[in-house]
Amino acid sequence: MSAVTNPATVAECLRVGAGFSQGDRAWIAEQFATLDARLAGFHADATELEVSVKDREARGQKVTLECWIAGRQKIVTTSGEEDLHAALNDVRDDLRRRLNDAKTRQEPRHNKHLRDISQPRDQVDPAEEPEALPAGDPSRADAETV
Question: 111: Cβ–Cβ under 8 A, 6 or more apart, which residues?
Fold first, then answer.
């Protein structure tokens, strides 16, 4: 991946939504700072994060973290933890996992160079050349194969 000239950071991309005030933004950004390493591969002007909470401090509160990155599907993570700090940590960790999964899906699965190399003779597919395989010892037959 090429180097990003203006890497995304939580401090630059985070917006606070319903249930939070601008005064809460600094400590939320501090809690989410571990996402910076994962977001650094994306351009800051093409990345947005929004955190919101429904029924804050109530028994059924729900924290939601949404992430928009240009050219990718929106990622939404939620937590129903009763403790606000635990809920924020939960959505942060879930977003990190989903970003890692998305990156893994986009990387090439196979190296073309390795596909072009012919298989060694001892790794022959038995369906292709059954006579090329050594004969098995009949005295060592498993109970399932008898």
Answer: none
pTM across the whole model: 0.68
How far is it, in rounded angstroms, from Cα 60 to Cα 45? Answer: 34
- Residue-wise pLDDT for 39-73, tens only, equals 988 898 999 999 999 988 888 899 999 999 988 88
Rounded CA separation 48/76 (Å)? 12
Interatomic CA distance for residues 16 and 126, integer angstroms: 60
- d(C-alpha 108, C-alpha 95), whole Å: 22
Distances (CA, A) of 17 to 23, 52, 138: 12, 5, 71
Residue type, 12: E
Write out pLDDT tens, residues 28-48: 999 999 999 899 888 989 999
25: which residues sit within 8 A by CB, 6+ positions away? 14, 16
CB contact at 8 A, 55 and 20: no
